[in-house]
Amino acid sequence: MLFKKKVLLSLCLSLVLAVLAGCNNGAKNESASNGGVDYPKRPITLVIPYAAGGSADIQARLVGESLQKQLGQAVNVVAMPGGAGATGMNSVKGSKADGYTIIMTAVGPSTLTPNANNVGYDVTKDFYPIAQVSEAPYGLAVNSDSKIETLEELLEFAKKNPGKATYGTTGAGLHQHVVMSDFLNKIEGTNMEHIPFGGGAEAVSALLGNHVTASANTISEITPHEESGSLNILAVTTDERLADLPDVPTFKELGYDLIGQGAWFGFMAPKDTPEEIVNILDESIKNALEDDTVKKQFENAGLPIKYLNSEDFTEKVKEENEKNAKVIQSLK
Amino acid sequence: MSPDIIAGLLFALAPAALLANLAGVALGIVFGALPGLTATMGLALLIPLTFGIPPVIAFSALLGVYVGAVYAGSITAILVGTPGTAAAAAALLEGPALTKKGEAKKALTMTTVASVLGGIFSCAILILVSPQLAKVALSFGPPEYFALAVFGLSIVAGVSGKSLLKGIIAGLIGLFIATIGMDPIIGTNRFTFGNPNLLNGINVVPALVGLFAISEVLTRIEGKSEQLKSKVSTSSIGLKASELKKNWFNIIRSSAIGTFIGIIPATGSGVASFVAYNEAKRASKDKEQFGKGNIDGIAATESANSAVTGGALVPLLTLGIPGDVITAVMLGALMIQGLTPGPMLFTTNGDVVYGIFAALILANIFTLFLGLGATKIFPKLLRIPEGILMPVIVVLCVLGSYSIANSMFDVLIMLSFGLLGYIMLKADLPLAPLLLSMILAPIAETNFRRAMLLSEQDLTIFLTRPVSLVILSVTFIVIGKIGFNEYKKFRNERTI
């Protein structure tokens, strides 16, 4: 009886091992050989500084899946939320710069958190930007009950009702807040009170319930309500008008320069990662974003793909980091 | 019946959808029951698998996990005093005491039945009146949230145990802990001591796991806690039909509370079960029995926390607004499917919406069967010698709190709260008020300050808005009554 049990147990164990081994062989073992480096030879850890299940997680998984196919190694997404993104960023900063630990970060953890708090990293000094993946534009919306239909009318309302006009954002010191407060600071005599909410959904519901005058949100959060007629979107943050909202002007064409165009996400590696490895990753990310299935899934999720290569992304991060730092200092 | 409803039913009853639903519920029960593993993690794990499959099958699995996990969080709370999720914390008020009386099976059966009834009640509300209720959710602005949170804080009195003063002290400790992290309005760092891990404050789940589970283990090590082992033989006492019948109104009231709190974004199931418990206690004739292992309390907390599931889907499906982390994850899953939740969803994808409704009801039915099966098996856990069970619990707590954010810092938080919980138990301070104020204080603080910004620092904003005025008046009366009772007690004690 005991013997039988042992046989059964060892059978089970060997079965598990066999399955595990099979999984390993499943990933094709053809490492890319450009640039003379043999990379990747083992699974890559892709950190996100956000909780599992959110939009960062979805993007990391969609791109990660394609990277896995292209590079022949598993890409494991590890969610490290907390510390306003600092926990994940610090973890990658402290990892070996060998391309096996990279991060898919965003505008907040890289250019806002370190400027507002002492968190022990500087995105321009401690990270090597690999590629930008997406950028979700913002829109400034009002409740349609307010009868406000243009940005000028909103600003006029704010001038006439100092203290009464309010705008909601996703949270204090977050990108929407930084971009909007910079925009409003440049306009004389307009005083709109900022009301920070706990995320985009709370801000939209406060606007739908008429608790604030206006709200700055990611476009995908407000378009369904524009379609149903409950919200009016007054302006969008992109340079060009959006295909889905052809009648909504951009801030730019109305004559306002913004310091940010939207919530961007992109890959970064620790600073000293070899250039060859960054190039391999950059190239693979570019391929991933040109894949039709990936494109379709990004579109469905309301995440506009906006690829930037390592060089352009590095430049952008540097520029926005400087501008955002100034605004954050003025907010204090 | 409209063709959409029939199409939806067919989607949800397809074999693949049924199987996905059943597997989802089973996975949810495992995630809910293990301390530290949460429903959100279960969902996040499943989402990449749903990318390529039809929406109703995907949602059958996701809703299964959701319903299963919310239900099962209470199982470990009742059996070993270790809540699996924040929503299950209220089950601690009666659950462990029932287990110590040898009535674990009865408690678990009630948990299952009440959960399923609560879940189905909220489904019915979701299906019948969600567009109207969505408007109610929107009428909640900062002043109303503040009023609701203050009302919630008044429950501290109901869960304080013997001494109101000690309950308030525990509540105040919770209030203090809730201030750690970035200031929600202007972003100043509070009590972070330069540690970036503290910027977002103390994570509730590891704190909760430490507070209740580790402190319990430490107490058991001392050998002073009552032995569970000897009582197992009698743990086969089941739920009597009369006990269920006696609680029918209690369950309906609690389900209504749960559904309502679920509908209002950003409140959560933890609050719902505490409110329902407090109302059940207030309505009960023998209040003295509460806190000592009262099955009515379990009926209230469990039906309320499961009723949150249907409620939370109201703003998600009708407005595209997720009320909590779990529904936010579901929003992402819906969008990947090419569905945009919100006002247009019912007209553009009516069949899918009805499919989701049907899947939610099915998930509750599966929970009933799997749950009733589980009530036979789970009490056997108590037969494991404490010398083995306790270390296993500690290991699970460490794993669970690590896996929430893949961070050792959360493990440290969990252990520190374990120590805090132990000290509080030594000082005879109740743990529930601390947790309650940790959950409610951020809602109260942020919304008070938002309201002040909106009204240009005018306090009358709380009195000029009807909903807020009503909630605050009720709170005022409740607090007045508690104060009066305390005074009476104090006088009686002095005359004796």
UniProtKB/TrEMBL annotation, chain A:
The keyword Signal applies. It comes from Domibacillus mangrovi. Residues 1-21 form the signal peptide. It holds the Pfam family TctC. The keyword Signal applies. This is ABC transporter substrate-binding protein. It comes from the Bacteria. Keywords: Signal. The lineage of its organism: Bacteria, Bacillati, Bacillota, Bacilli, Bacillales.
UniProtKB/TrEMBL annotation, chain B:
The keyword Membrane applies. This is C4-dicarboxylate ABC transporter permease. The chain crosses the membrane at residues 6-31, 43-63, 69-93, 113-133, 145-161, 168-186, 198-219, 325-346, 352-375, 387-405, 411-441, 462-484. Pfam families: TctA. It comes from the Bacteria. InterPro entries: DUF112_TM. Keywords: Membrane, Transmembrane, Transmembrane helix. Residues 18-436 form the DUF112 domain.
